[in-house]
Write a structure and sequence with these properties.
Elements (H helix, E strand, L loop, with lengths): L1 H4 L14 H23 L6 H20 L4 H13 L9 H18 L3 H21 L10 E9 L9 H7 E12 L4 E10 L5 H11 L5 E5 L8
Antiparallel strand pairs: 1-3, 1-4, 2-3
Helix pairs in contact: 2-3, 2-5, 2-6, 3-5, 5-6
């Protein structure tokens, strides 16, 4: 009776029919795989509830789509094109988030093809690596505290060319003037430097020396952001 209810309108003897038990088994496996990926991503990572829910459900969605187009090359090509057009998030995600989405899609595809053991093995291996890399802080910059952005405010009558070079050469291993702009109706200049400190413990000493050169106007030191936009 149930096989008749869930039989497709266009099913023929030439087309393989997915049984209800196999369908539920694949869906259940996809949901378990999605939960494993979600918990692995939450380990020592910043995340939002909406992304975790998406990550947990995405393998099941992909699994159903792949099962429905199984054996139909034309439908498979159409689905692949649709996936390339879908934007999973309204804002640009990080490289890690995009990678997790692709992993979830890959696991769902494997499950939809019926290779449940391979899908589970793939998920376990990738999640173990994700947890391991997060635990080891793999790829983190060891001397990140030394990379700073320096903003110096100077009066308009002060020629900033070469006025701070002597101090910066003493306290930094490298520096670069990346931006100059006027402020306060043009009566002040603001210089922005990207620099690498020789010794982070002497940051205040450097600022005190700079204050003597810029007339004790505002000076800010902040963490240096990446020059390129993160994926």
């Amino acid at each position: 009776m149930l096989d008749t209810v869930f039989r497709g309108l266009f099913d023929t003897d030439m087309t393989s029919i997915i049984s209800i038990s196999d369908f539920l088994l694949c869906i259940g496996s996809s949901l378990v795989i999605g939960l494993i990926m979600a918990f692995a991503y939450m380990f020592r990572s910043r995340y939002t509830k909406s992304f975790i829910v998406t990550l947990a459900l995405l393998p099941a969605v992909v699994c159903v789509v792949i099962m429905m187009v199984n054996g139909n090359v034309g439908a498979g090509v159409a689905v692949a094109g649709a996936f390339s057009l879908v934007r999973f998030r309204s804002v640009p995600g990080t490289a890690k988030e995009i990678t997790m989405l692709f992993l979830a899609m890959g696991a769902g595809l494997i499950t939809g093809m019926g290779y449940l053991a391979f899908a589970l093995l793939f998920t376990v291996i990738m999640c173990v690596l994700i947890v391991l890399y997060n635990q080891l802080d793999f790829g983190s910059k060891k001397n990140a505290a030394a990379y700073k952005t320096l903003n110096i405010t100077i009066p308009e009558d002060l020629d900033y060319t070469g006025v701070f070079e002597e101090i910066l050469e003493k306290y930094t291993t490298s520096y670069e003037l990346v931006k100059v702009r006027t402020t306060n109706m043009g009566s002040l200049f603001r210089l922005t430097y990207n620099l690498v400190l020789r010794d982070t413990a002497k940051e205040k000493e450097m600022i005190d020396k700079l204050r003597c050169r810029n007339g004790n106007l505002e000076i800010t030191v902040s963490r240096q952001e990446n020059a390129t936009v993160e994926l």
